[in-house]
Design goal:
heterodimer; A: 73 residues; mainly beta; OB fold (Dihydrolipoamide Acetyltransferase, E2P); four-stranded antiparallel β-sheet; 8 strands; 0% helix; B: 553 residues; alpha/beta; 2-enoyl-CoA Hydratase, Chain A, domain 1; eight-stranded mixed β-sheet; 22 helices; 18 strands
Chain lengths: 73, 553
């Protein structure tokens, strides 16, 4: 079953640093969200292979919104 | 009735324990000599028998079951926490004893809670914990009075209390026991000592397995708590209780794991194993006095008080939207390897921890731009209250690094009661009586900028410091639109106004107006902090004793 990496805080997505098929580890910087006028790196809370990306650069996201889903490697 | 047969008739013997050694004084026969009849040797032997049984806890089988789970027993836990050989147990033979008609001991179950004193890095503490090998550590296993007494003891000896917890809390069978009697005493009075405890001595706890009900509450009723990743579970009510109350079974691994409680602020820190928990408790206590009537002990300083790390010159990016890691700043300024972070997962917009400066213990607070942009959100506010209360209670001066964008804004933030929590944090900061030093390392915006200092010590700004309530670009136009439009040269007027505001935003303008104690080379921060902490010592001496406003958990 795929697991979901969620946004840790609200703001506008400035960078998505993964593509479908990439392997990510816990702590990898997978995205950047601008929150409170600060470019805040988002670290992956899970490890796995990216299956689907839900957010795009320019999107406004709330805490807990889906960023992307991972499958076990 | 001779003593040997009494013991052999006992349940303990029948349960298959090795027959405890018999104590004999030199040249004395226990059964026939005149000396025995005259002496107290039989009773001494009974004491030793009971002590030996108590050492076995719930018996070989129960202990083996515990070990098979990868856990330590409570005796192993206590010995692993304390300096070797320093545990002095209190009530080692407390327990429930059954007697037969001839008043022979027919059974003996040790109390399922241990209590005593011992040393941590040479300093005395009171230590306690539930014994999971007897009635699952539940609070009706004969350990209740020891558990409650430990709070009284720590308070009266004025020693830190360390709780090594695991257990299910109350059991339904205790309802039956208490139904007709008055075992509990007046409702509520047994928890009252706790309120005073946090105001007077450090309380540090570890959740070392499943902790529910009152055992969970004991973990949280502390100044510092730590749990084990994937091994400790904490809840107000365990899965069976939840299932009956809410109609849904939630396994304990989901209900109360560290990903819940380290992130919601219920537990401060996490460790990989039991030894890691003990290590963190030892570290935590090393920064604190044994009680509020003392000052924290100073360690022999090992770091250069004049150290000026070059990294401080470039740690804050010139690009204003780029975050930095506050730990780099903290570690460059406090004594090498002395920073002990508290609550790293909860309220990530704020970094808090204990450290040493020139050997003296201090509290450290910093905005963390990597978490919610460093904003004062509801979690960071709660974290700040708890942390400054800890520092104030135990007389730790506070070193503060400010990069404050203000209260968190937006719908989520409003739903989370950010203003209520944030204003409460401001009040908590300004109620502290310990000295503060503040370094404005970058932003100092909004009301929340007041949550980093009390006016009781120096305020220094780095060249990267900036102030204001709105960005200049756009802000000038919004506020001065009519004035700019009416000017002979509107464009010139706009630039003039922007330059004026720029002066206010930069730390130079602030320093010119004596709004700061100094504008500094960031590399001077450590020597200035050392000077501050040394100077604070005579102030701290005047603050000893309990605060008028005791700390709450």
């Amino acid at each position: 079953m795929a697991s979901i990496v969620e946004t840790p805080w609200p703001g506008v997505v400035q960078e998505i640093n993964v593509e479908v098929g990439d392997d990510v580890a816990v702590g990898d910087e997978v995205a950047v969200i601008e929150s409170m006028k600060m470019l805040t790196p988002v670290e992956s809370t899970l490890a796995g292979r990216v299956v689907e990306i839900f957010a795009a650069v320019g999107d406004y996201v709330e805490t807990g919104d889906r960023l992307f889903s991972l499958d076990d490697i | 009735m001779d003593f040997t047969s009494r013991v052999q008739a006992g349940r303990v013997y029948q349960q298959g324990y090795a027959e405890p050694a018999t104590l004999r004084a030199p040249g004395m026969s226990t059964e026939t000599s005149e000396g025995t009849r005259m002496s107290w040797l039989p009773e001494v032997e009974e004491i030793n028998q009971r002590r030996a049984i108590a050492q076995q806890m719930g018996g070989a089988e129960a202990v083996e079951r515990k070990r098979a789970q990868g856990s330590l027993t409570i005796r192993e836990r206590i010995n692993a926490l304390l300096d070797e050989g320093t545990f002095r147990e209190l009530g080692p033979i407390a327990g429930s004893v059954e007697y037969d008609d001839d008043y022979r001991r027919s059974g003996y179950t040790p109390a399922n809670s241990l209590l005593g004193t011992g040393r941590v890095q040479g300093r005395e503490v009171v230590v306690r914990g539930e014994d999971m090998t007897i009635r699952g550590g539940s609070s009706d296993g004969g350990g209740r009075s020891k558990a409650y007494y430990s709070e009284h003891l720590a308070r009266s000896l004025r020693l830190p209390l360390v709780g090594l917890h695991e257990g299910a809390g109350g059991s339904i069978t205790s309802n039956r026991k208490r139904a007709g009697g008055n075992e509990r005493g007046m409702t509520g009075h047994l928890l009252s000592p706790y309120a005073d405890l946090l105001a007077t001595v450090p309380v540090a706890t570890a959740a070392l397995g499943s902790c529910a009900g009152i055992v969970g509450a004991r973990v949280v009723y502390s100044h510092f708590s730590v749990m084990i990743k994937e091994r400790s579970f904490l809840f107000a009510g365990g899965p069976p209780v939840v299932e009956r109350a809410l109609g849904k079974f939630i396994p304990k691994e989901e209900l109360g794991n560290w990903r819940i409680h380290a992130f919601n602020g219920t537990v401060d820190n996490v460790a990989d194993d039991e030894m890691g928990c003990f290590e963190q408790i030892r570290s935590f206590l090393s920064y604190l006095p044994s009680n509020v009537w003392e000052l924290p002990p100073r360690l022999e300083p090992t770091d250069d008080p004049d150290r000026r790390d070059e990294i401080l010159l470039e740690v804050v990016p010139r690009e204003r939207r780029r975050a930095f890691n506050p730990q780099k700043i903290i570690r460059s300024i406090v004594d090498l390897d002395s920073f002990f972070e508290i609550s790293p997962y909860f309220g990530r917009a704020l970094t808090t921890g204990l450290a040493r400066v020139d050997g003296y213990a201090v509290g450290v607070v910093s905005n963390n731009p990597n978490g919610n942009g460093g904003a004062m959100d509801s979690q960071a506010s709660e974290k700040l209250v708890r942390f400054v209360d800890l520092c104030d209670t135990f007389h730790l001066p506070i070193v503060s690094f400010e990069d404050e964008p203000g209260f968190m804004v937006g719908l989520e933030a409003e739903r989370a009661a950010t203003l209520r929590k944030g204003v409460r944090a401001l009040a908590a900061v300004h109620q502290t009586t310990v000295p503060w030093i503040k370094f404005i390392v970058r932003r100092a915006y909004g009301v929340a900028a007041g949550a980093h200092h009390t006016g009781s010590g120096p305020v220094y700004a780095w060249p990267s410091g900036e102030w204001g309530s709105l960005p200049i670009e756009g802000g000038v136009w919004a506020a001065h639109r009519r004035e700019i439009e009416a000017a002979a040269d509107p464009e010139l007027r706009r630039l003039e106004l922007e330059r004026e505001y720029e002066k206010i935003r930069t730390p130079f303008g602030r320093a010119e107006g004596f709004g700061l104690h100094d504008l500094i080379d960031p590399r001077e921060s450590r020597p200035l902090t050392v000077e501050f902490v040394r100077r604070s010592q005579h102030v701290l001496k005047t603050l000893i004793g309990p605060k008028a406003r005791p700390m709450r958990p």
